[in-house]
């Protein structure tokens, strides 16, 4: 396959997200402007100007009209997807990290980093359908975990919030009471910072990637560990194929060590694993730096990766890919 | 001598053009299940003879064009933000010039054979005869392949250099043996964590590399991959292109994961007719720097 290279960002990529129809691809980077691309040919549709810091995460509503972004400028912003206009700004006292719309797009979860004596927190905001009625108050604020929360997503039926971060623990919170429901077992859990978390299409299970060079598959309700995928480099990004039983891990050595080693030695490939057998089935090379973001097109026929090198690489699979035997 | 044609001749040529109705109509066959489309046209050539022109093209579909109504609508959305005043030369979106292969750790279809080999390598060896399994990283014989070496992170690169007297490959030996004043890259210094990384760099490209000569001008990497894939797990294909003209220079390289696969490919494809040219396939000579 010949990937499509998209060079819209001047700084390392942080996050990639497809909309539900799979025709738009949103990219976030450490430069201040999230960008939207057509997911088939990689043409740039527009940029969302207004943030004043690195943008860490984004999410798009199911009908592809609203975009939410979390940024290091201590704000999360709501955008109109079509025009790129800012609809609302949620201001915080510390950098915003992860954002996620709930099922139904009525609520959003935003996490904030520990900063200047403040601890990290998970905020739940109500999202009104008319931006004029939008308010900034949090419905719920969850606190407790030490260190940064790198990712927080909604659990099944919006009843829970799943969070993971620097303390290497996956937590499930009750969205009604704000209580901590479950924490994963220390013995079976990750040993180092969890960098990424991706839900399956149906939300029944999710995948976490960690700097301890492994990725783990968990049940969303019971938080039981289903599978572990071991690799030879820190995992920065994970994705799950919606079509086949494949998981993709992206990573590479630390950015600080990149300049002193060859790109082939840096293990900057996206590695494909069989979801069930936990076996490596393939790799896709190309980036000149660690992979920071991965996303699968909802049709499962293409995926994109974003690297420390500032490129988004959009891969449409060759027919051979679909012939890989699996169970 | 190029002379201006006289009016009389022009008239005649016009007449010639009128005979086009005598030709059979253009035929389009396909695309078939392999994506091959055939177009058959008939024309008069300069001498007035009838010629049949058959053009075979491959139609490749990248993404399924099944789009929702909303998505079709979004297709016509006007650009916004920085995308509005994007100059044509910006080239933000490019198709990679390099063919990226979905690399399989095992060649398709060799699963059973592979697990046998790892289960009882010594038996495999005696059966295979000439196959001698020596790990190039740790030097152990008959225990595992180099790629599966459990000690690869611990190993010192010295053995691999001593067996390889080629001066072009020994940049690291030069560095360690050099006088104090010379610059030693951080990865080569004593106490560096990744001592093997630097040594691997050059060898990767040369390992099990097969040179293919006498390629036709329109052979591209995917074609080469298709041709060589049946012989084993291909880790790289490359077709040399002329920088100025963008035309193929008529040769390319294919790297195999295992040497036997390369040997098999050479045995089979050397002298093979491909695109009306006879291929010559051989081991690539190490790059002379």
Please write out the topology.
The complex is a heterodimer of chains A (327) and B (289).
Chain A: E1 4-6, E2 13-18, E3 24-29, E4 35-38, E5 44-47, E6 55-60, E7 66-71, E8 75-80, E9 86-91, E10 96-101, E11 107-112, E12 121-126, E13 138-143, E14 149-154, E15 160-165, E16 170-174, E17 180-183, E18 194-199, E19 205-210, E20 214-219, E21 225-230, E22 235-240, E23 246-251, E24 270-274, E25 280-284, E26 291-296, E27 302-307, E28 312-316
Chain B: H1 7-18, E1 27-29, E2 36-44, E3 50-58, H2 69-75, E4 93-95, H3 111-119, H4 121-128, H5 158-162, H6 171-177, H7 195-206, E5 209-213, H8 221-228, E6 234-241, E7 248-256, H9 259-269, E8 273-274, E9 277-278, E10 280-283
Antiparallel strand pairs in B: 1-2, 2-3, 5-7, 5-10, 6-7, 8-9
Organism (chain A): Lactuca saligna (Willowleaf lettuce)
Family (chain A): Belongs to the eIF-3 subunit I family. Belongs to the WD repeat STRAP family.
Subunit structure (chain A): Component of the eukaryotic translation initiation factor 3 (eIF-3) complex.
Helix share, percent of chain A: under 10%
Hey, which two chains have the biggest interface? A-B, 57 and 40 residues
Record field, number of beta strands of chain A: 28
The helix-strand sequence of chain A is EEEEEEEEEEEEEEEEEEEEEEEEEEEE
User: What's the total count of β strands of chain B?
Assistant: 10
Strand order of the largest sheet of chain B: 6-7-5-10
Instruction: Please work out how many helical segments of chain A DSSP would assign.
Output: 0
CATH class of the domain at 8-147 in chain A: Mainly Beta
Largest sheet of chain A: 4 strands, antiparallel
| Estimated share of beta-strand residues of chain B | 15-25%
What's the CATH H-level homologous superfamily of the domain at 8-147 in chain A?
YVTN repeat-like/Quinoprotein amine dehydrogenase
Number of domains of chain B: 3
Most strands sheet of chain B = 4 strands, antiparallel
The average pLDDT of chain B is: 70
Number of helices of chain B: 9
The CATH architecture of the domain at 8-147 in chain A comes to 7 Propeller
- Report low-confidence residues of chain B grouped into runs of 5 or more: 107-130, 155-178, 195-200
So what's the overall shape of chain B? extended
Subcellular location (chain A): Cytoplasm
Main location (chain A): cytoplasm
WD repeats (chain A): 6-47, 48-89, 142-183, 187-228, 284-314
Pfam family, one (chain A): EIF3I
